[in-house]
């Protein structure tokens, strides 16, 4: 069975979103847009991704915008989401292992496409280590 992963981008990340989909055909992509480089608002795509994860349709998502920052900030407003901006594969491995990140955020204006591919591959193949990291992850959400 193919692994189902969500992917979404604003106009600043559209080209990398398409390149990632093409690069990893073994993955069943749930493409949540955008569909071209016309200007859109990155929070809309972050919230849509968060809703799909909260609803159980997917466990993991990839978000791309110009920097990866805005779209990750918006996604992280949802308590169930741990979105990590990664600029190299080490960050991708460690954010899975230590933070149990369920969303990877990438910046098309920040990293090269080969680096983006390496990050995606590493993020999707790395496991959460649990143990002491589980205790820390459980402390991330604050209760009002
Ligand atoms: C869009 O121009 C740009 O602001 C967006 O892609 C992202 O970089 C925001 O953090």
List keywords for this structure.
single chain, binds D-ribose, 42% helix, 144 residues, Ribose 5-phosphate Isomerase B, Chain: A, five-stranded parallel beta sheet, alpha/beta
Short description:
This protein is of the alpha/beta class.
Widest beta sheet: strand line-up: 2-1-3-5-4
Question: Helix/strand/pairing class, anyone?
Answer: alpha/beta
**Radius of gyration over all CA atoms, rounded:** 14 Å
CATH class wording: Alpha Beta
Strand element count: 5
Q: Which spans have pLDDT < 50 for at least 5 consecutive residues?
A: none
Give the count of helical stretches.
6
CATH topology: Ribose 5-phosphate Isomerase B, Chain: A
Ligand inventory reads: D-ribose
CATH homologous superfamily descriptor: Sugar-phosphate isomerase, RpiB/LacA/LacB
Instruction: State the domain count.
Output: 1
Describe this structure in words.
- By secondary structure, the protein is α/β, with parallel strands linked by helices.
- The protein has a single domain (3-138), classed as Ribose 5-phosphate Isomerase B, Chain: A (3-Layer(aba) Sandwich).
- It contains six helices and five strands; from the N terminus they run βαβαβαβαβαα.
- A five-stranded parallel sheet has the order 2-1-3-5-4, sandwiched between helices.
- Helix 1 (14-23) crosses helix 5 and helix 4 packs parallel to helix 5.
- Bound molecules: D-ribose.
């Amino acid at each position: 069975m193919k692994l189902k992963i969500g992917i979404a981008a604003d106009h600043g990340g559209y080209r990398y979103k398409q390149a990632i989909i093409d690069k990893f055909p073994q993955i069943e992509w749930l493409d949540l847009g955008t569909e071209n480089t016309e200007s859109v608002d990155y929070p809309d795509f972050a919230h849509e991704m968060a809703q799909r994860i909260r609803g159980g349709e997917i466990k993991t998502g990839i978000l791309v915008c110009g920097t990866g920052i805005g779209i990750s900030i918006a996604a992280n407003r949802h308590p169930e989401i741990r979105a990590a901006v990664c600029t190299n594969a080490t960050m991708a491995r460690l954010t899975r292992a230590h933070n149990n990140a369920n969303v990877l955020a990438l910046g098309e204006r920040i990293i090269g496409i080969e680096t983006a591919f390496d990050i995606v591959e590493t993020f999707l193949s790395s496991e959460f280590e649990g143990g002491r990291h589980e205790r820390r992850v459980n402390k991330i959400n604050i209760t009002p």
